[in-house]
C-alpha cells in the first residue's frame, strides 16, 4: 500500500516534470544560448536562489550533516571561507566575467576559456582538455547526487536503492532535457523555497525533542570523543592545523564551479549582481551552517548510526507526520536534483559547443539543441551507473569534484580576468595542471590533497606566464565593467 509520504513525494516529482514540460511547450527555443542560458535574461532573485540551490546538493543534507554528526561546528572553517569567496565572486568577478562572456559569446566556463585564447590551435587544445575535464568532474559530481537521491528515498521512503537511483536519474534527466536552463532555473527556485523550509524546521524540532537549546548545549558538550560545539573539534597542534586548512582550501573550489558561473553569465544585467549577491549570501549562510546543527543534534539523539550521512533522513521520518515528512523529504531531494540538473546542463553545454566548434561548424541550431538534450540524457544515465558502483562516500566524491573544478577552471579564469600578463599558454597549463594534479595528488594523499592542488596549479600558471609573456598567445581583453551597461530591468 502506498503511504502518505510516498504519495506526497510522487506528487512533487510530477511537479518538476510539469515545470520542464511547461518551458518545453511555451518557450521558443531557436538558439543554443536560449536553451543553455535562457538568452541571458534572468533576474536577480531567480539567479541567486537557483545558484544556492544548484550548489546545495547532496552535500548540504548528507555530507555536511555527516560532518556535523562527527565534528560539530568544526565545519564552520569551510562555511566562513566559502561565504567570503561568494562575496568576492559577485563583487569582483561577476561584472568582468559577464561582460567578457557576452562579448565573446561564451555559454560555459570551458567555452569561455577557449574563446578567450586568440590563437586558433591553442584554443582548440584548451577546448579539448576543458571538455574532458568537465565530463570527468561533472560525471563524478552527478553520480554523487544520484547516490544521495538513492539514500534519501531508501532511508526516508523505503524505496529500494536501485529503483530510487534509477527514478531520480530519469526524472532530473527528463525535465532538464525538456526545459533547458529555464527549467533548471525555475525548478531551482521552487526547490530553494523547500530547502529553506527544511533547513529551518528540521533542527528546531530536533533540538526541541532534546529539550530545548540549553539541554542541547549541555548534552552536546557531554558527548564522548567529540567536541561538537568547538571549532577546533577537540583537535590541537598539527592535527588541528591540517584539518582546518583542509576545510579552508576545500572551500576555494567555489571559484570554479561551472554551474554557479553559468548564473553569472545568464543574469540580465551586471547591475543586478549586487542585489543577487545579498540574496545569495543570505541563503548560503543558512545552508552552510544549519546542517552542522542537524548533525550535532543527531549525534545527541541517536548516539551512533551506521551512516552519519543519513541522519537528516532518519530525523525527518522520526519526528514529522507523514504528510510533512513527504514535503521535507521532497525538499532534501530537491537540493540534490537542483545540483544535478545544473551539472547535466553544464556538461551538455560544453560537449555541444565542442561539437559545434570542432566537429560540425555547419550544424543548425535545431541540431545543436537536440544534441544538447540527448547529451543530458546520456549523462543522466551515466550518473545512475556511477551510483550503482558507488566508489566512495558522498563527501569524498564531492570534495574530489569540487576542488578539481575550482583548480581546473577557477584559477585560469581569475588569472585571465585580473592579471593582464596571463597568456593563452598559461591558461592551457592551468587547465592541464588542475586536471592532472587533482587526480595525481588525490591518489597520493587523499586525506589532504586539497592542501597541495592549489599551490601546484598557481605555480604552473605563473611560471608559464613568465616564460611566455613576451612571445606567448594573447587572451581577450577584459572590458571595463563600469562603462556601457544598460540600466537594469526589473528582476
Automatic annotation (TrEMBL):
It comes from the Archaea. One of its GO terms (biological process) is proline transport. One of its GO terms (cellular component) is plasma membrane. InterPro entries: Na/Glc_symporter_sf (IPR038377), Na/Pro_symporter (IPR011851), Na/solute_symporter (IPR001734), Na/solute_symporter_CS (IPR018212), Sodium:Solute_Symporter (IPR050277). It is a multi-pass membrane protein. Keywords: Cell membrane, Ion transport, Membrane, Sodium, Sodium transport, Symport, Transmembrane, Transmembrane helix, Transport. It is found in: Cell membrane. Signal peptide: none annotated. Residues 471-491 are annotated as: Disordered. The keyword Transferase does not apply. The chain crosses the membrane at residues 7-25, 61-90, 128-149, 161-181, 193-215, 235-255, 323-347, 368-388, 400-419, 426-445, 451-468. The keyword 4Fe-4S does not apply. It catalyses: L-proline(in) + Na(+)(in) = L-proline(out) + Na(+)(out). One of its GO terms (molecular function) is sodium ion binding. Belongs to the sodium:solute symporter (SSF) (TC 2.A.21) family. This is Sodium/proline symporter.
